[in-house]
Amino acid sequence: MTVSENTTHNIQQISKSSYLNQSTATPTELRSALHLQGLTPAKVESFELQKKRALAQLRSKSSDIEKYVFLAWLRNTNVRLFYGLVGDQLEETLPLIYTPTVGTACQNYSSIYPFLAPPGQPDGLFLSINDLPNLTEIIQNYKPFPQDPSLTPQIAVITDGSRILGLGDLGVGGMGIPVGKLQLYVAGAGIDPRRTLPITLDLGTNNEDKLKDEFYLGLREKRAGDDKFFPFVDAVIEALTSLYPKLLIQFEDFSSEHAFQLLDKYQPKKFCFNDDIQGTGAVILAGFMNAINLAGIPAKDHKILFFGAGSAAVGVAKQLAAYFVNDHGMTEDEAREMVWLVDSKGLVTLDRGDKLAEHKLYFARKDNAGSQYPSITSVIEHVRPTALFGLSSQSGAFSEDVLKSMASLNQRPIVFPLSNPAYQAECSFEQAMIHTKGKVIFASGTAFPKYTDPNTGLISAPGQGNNMYIFPGLGLGGILAQPETISDRLIYSAARACANALTVEERSQGLLYPVLPRIRQVSAEVAAAVVTEAVAEGSATNEEAIKLVKSHDKAALLNFVSSNMWTTDGVQHEITTFAPHL
Ligand SMILES: NC(=O)c1ccc[n+]([C@@H]2O[C@H](COP(=O)([O-])OP(=O)(O)OC[C@H]3O[C@@H](n4cnc5c(N)ncnc54)[C@H](O)[C@@H]3O)[C@@H](O)[C@H]2O)c1
Ligand SMILES: O=C(O)C[C@H](O)C(=O)O
Ligand SMILES: [Mg+2]
Fold first, then answer.
1. Is residue 103 lining ligand 2, measured as CB closer than 6 Å?
2. 414 with 387: CB under 8 angstroms?
3. pLDDT at res. 571
4. Binding residue per annotation — 276?
C-alpha cells in the first residue's frame, strides 16, 4: 500500500484498522504521513518476514487452544497477515481455526472471549432475544472494519448454538462456528473478509454446566420455546435482508428439528441454505461418487446404512437418493429403498412403536416384516450394507466388531465416520484400517493422521468428508450468479463439481477428495458449476455471469470466478494445482 493510496483514508482508520494497518511493515514515508514514527520500532519489515514470525510464535504455543486464541487475536488485529499465514499453512492452521480445535474453543468461549480481540473489535454479532425491538439498529452496529458503503456483508453464517458440532448446546459459545466457517469462506473461496458476517443468536441455553458457569457470557436462562424462537428468527432474517438485500444466509448448527423447519420455510423465499443438511449432503455425495468407483460395485447394488438420523444424516440420504434418481435412472421409491437409518432406538421403521420425528419419516423402513433391530450389529446383519456412514456423535460406535463385519461383507467397505470433532467420530482411521485389514474406503468429518502399516511400511491417507469442500464454493457461486434462492439443483451441481475436482494424480492415489492445499481451486470449480447451473435453470441475474456461461468458455468462466477472489495483496493469483497462497 502506498502513501497516495492511503490518503483517502483518515489517519485513525489506517493505524487502528485491523484491515488497513500494516504493523511493522508500514513503509517509512507512510509512518511519517500518518504520524506513526516512534510508535513502532524503526525497522520496516516485509510481509514475508511478518508471516515467518507469526508462524514461529504460533508454533511456540504449547496447546491447540492457545494457538486458537493467538490466531483469533491476529485475525482481529491484522486481517491480511492472518490470512497470509493461513493461506501458506493451510494444513497446519485449518485444524486450529476450524474442526477440531474450534470445538474446544466453543466449549471454552466465555473463558477465552476477552483474549480473542482488542476492545472495540467484535469477534462476531451477538443478537439476544431481548434485542428483538432494536434488531435493525444493533445489526448496523457491527462494523469491524472502517466502513466503505460498498462493503456491505455478502455472507452471514448464523447459529443459535444449540447443536455445535457433536458437542450439543453451547449457547453463545457457538460463535466459534460462524467465525470459523467464514474464515473458510475467505481462505477457501476468496470471499472478502470485510464482507462476512458471523452471527450467534442468544435464546438462552439448556446446558446446565453453562448456566452454572460464573464466566458464561450468554443469557442465563433456559432456551426460549418455539413460540418465541420462530418469531425471533423471522425478525432477524427480515432485518438482515432488508438491510442487505443481496446477503446470502447460511444456517449452521441449529438443532435438527429447527434446522429442517427453517430450511423448509426459507429455502423457497430467501437467498439461503443450511450447511449441515445441504452442504453435508453435497460433500458426502461427492465422496460417495468417487468411492463407488473404488468399491467396484455398481451404484444400484449399494445398500447404505446411516448411523444417526439427524439433520446431517437425512441431508446426506436425500442427496444420495437424488443421485440414484438423476444419474442411475431409478424411481424415487427405488432410490429411497437404498437407505436405512439408525437412531438411538435402532433401525428406523414405521412400526417401531414410537412417534418418529418428521424428518425421519421419509426413509423409515416398512419392509421389516414386524421385526425390530435395536443394535447396530443386528442392523448390519439384517441389511448387509456396502456403505456405513456415522452422523451420530457417538464416539467409538464403529467398534472392532462393526468394522470386521463390514470387511467380511465387502471387498472394499465404505466407512465414513463423519461426526465432529475427531473425538466424537464413530471410529478413527487407524481403527478402520486395522479392523478391515486395510480394505476400507474411508472419510471422516475431521482430519485423522495418515496410517502407516506396521508390516509393509505403506502409508495411507484418509479422506476428509467435511462440508468445507462445498460451502465456500457454493457461497461464491451464489454471490456471482445472484439467484433469488439456492435451489436443490444448485446444491447438486456443487456436489458433482466437487467429485469431479479430483486430479488424475489424486484419483490414482485412491483419494475421495482433493488435497487441502487445493481448496481454492476446488471452490473455483464448485462456484463455476453453481453459476452454470443457475444460468441453466434461469435463476441467475448477474449479466456478466450469464454472458460468460452462454459463451461456453469454461476457462473464461473460471477466470471470472478467480478474479473475484479476494487476496491479501489485491492481486489475482493463478488458480493452478498447488497454489494455495492467498
Ligand atoms: N462431516 C461433516 O461435514 C458434518 C456435517 C454436519 C454434521 N456433522 C456431524 O454429524 C453429527 C450429527 O449432526 P446432526 O446435525 O445430524 O445432529 P443430531 O443431534 O440431529 O443427530 C444425531 C443423531 O444421532 C442419533 N443417535 C444418538 N445417539 C445414538 C446412538 N447411541 N445410536 C444411534 N444413533 C444415535 C440421534 O438419534 C440423532 O438421530 C455431529 O457430530 C456433527 O458434527 C458432520
Ligand atoms: O463444522 C464442521 O466441521 C462440519 C459440520 O458443519 C458440523 O456441524 O459438524
Ligand atoms: Mg455444522
1. no
2. yes
3. 76
4. yes
Given the cut 0.90, state whether the ipTM is greater than it: yes
> Measured from the CB, is residue 464 less than 6 Å from ligand 1?
no
Q: Report every protein residue that has its C-beta within 5 angstroms of ion ligand 3.
A: 253, 276
CB-based contacts of 415, cutoff 8 Å, min separation 6:
387, 388, 398, 403, 406, 427, 432, 436, 440, 441, 442
* Atom in ligand 1 nearest the alpha carbon of residue 346: 33
Residue 3 has pLDDT above 80, yes or no: no
343 lines ligand 1 (CB under 6 A): yes
Ligand showing the shortest atom-to-Cα distance for residue 397: 1
Alpha helices for 410-542 (secondary structure H): 429-435, 471-481, 488-500, 504-508, 519-536
CB 217 within 8 A of CB 175: no
Q: If we measure between CA atoms, which residue out of 75, 98, 247 comes closest to residue 145?
A: 75
CA dist 86 → 79, 80, 83, 544, 580 (Å): 11, 10, 5, 31, 9
Catalytic residues: 98, 181
Predicted structure pTM score: 0.96
CA atoms of 382 and 318, how far apart (whole Å) = 22
- Upper half-sphere CA count for residue 547 (Cβ side, 13 Å): 4
159 CA distance to ligand 3 middle (Å): 9
Is the C-beta atom of 393 inside 6 A of ligand 1? yes
Describe the crossing of helices 488-500 and 519-536 by its angle, rounded to 10 degrees: 140
For atom 21 of ligand 1, the residue with the nearest CA is 310
pLDDT of amino acid 580:
38
Question: Does the pLDDT at position 581 exceed 50?
Answer: no
397-421, pLDDT tens digit by residue?
A: 999 999 999 999 999 999 999 999 9
Alpha carbon nearest to ligand 1 atom 16, residue: 310
Q: Which strands, in side-by-side order, build the sheet including 248-251?
A: 125-128, 196-202, 155-159, 248-251, 272-274
For 43-72, what is the mean pLDDT?
Answer: 98
Q: Is 99 in the pocket of ligand 2 (CB under 6 A)?
A: yes
Question: Over 70: is that where the pLDDT of 2 sits?
Answer: no
Atom number in ligand 1 closest to CA 255:
20
CA distances from 312 to 151, 278, 282, 420, 511 (A): 33, 8, 11, 11, 23
For 549-575, how does the pLDDT look when each residue is reduced to its tens digit (9 = 90+)?
A: 999 999 999 999 999 999 998 877 765
